[in-house]
# Entry
Amino acid sequence: MSTVMNAPQIDETSNEVNKPWSAKATLGLTLLLFILYFVISIISLVIAAGVELVGSGVNSENAEAFGASIAQNLALDGDFNAINYLFTALCISPVIFHLAKKRKVTTASAYLGFDKLPSKANFINFNLAILGYFIFSYFVSNALAIETPQSMIDIYNTTDYLFLLFIAVVIAAPIFEELVFRGFIFKGLENSPLGVIGAIFITSTLFTLIHLGQYDFTILAILFPLAVIIGLSRYRSGGIYLPIYLHFINNLYSAVHMYLFMH
# Structure
């Protein structure tokens, strides 16, 4: 009798596993991923500050104040930020693949969009779109007299190993961030009642907001259209390769612009 009573529950659970994560579950798990990212970053900062404090030979009376000063400097240090980002991304990426694998609707790679390459037409069209965005952002930035954020200048000035910052910003960031936004989040939202429009809008908004600590609201407003273009490329291409490529091109453009600005 109990076996018969439990059969519908088993079928229901099985059906849920064979579907993408719901919108609520996707956003909830994304919040946990953000918290995990923050926790790992803080732990890395504390460890790095502790190592530097021990090596400084400061006495115990001044250790707390000096340690706080070290941590503050590290938070704006280009080399530490690059290493911390790479380490955190390497820690969280397997978690994302594990969450995707939990849904039996497809493979983890396909769930995250690694199963489809963009068509030639999509590749050309979105290259034109990103070029149009660069022109738009250039003229808007000049018209509004937007200056390079001081935080970015500080990070660049405190970088001894420029290649490390380049790897983190130009290579790792596009892969990891697209894995989160146009990979995991997009899949769950696209297959929910929110649909494609909701998926593009929400992922674009979240993508813009994670840069809140780096840029002011004017720059964020210019960044949002880029996020929408990348979201559209995810939908039109059916995969994550084109979003990663567009993100890479944007970060490469920004890195070159920053280098020329500082020299």
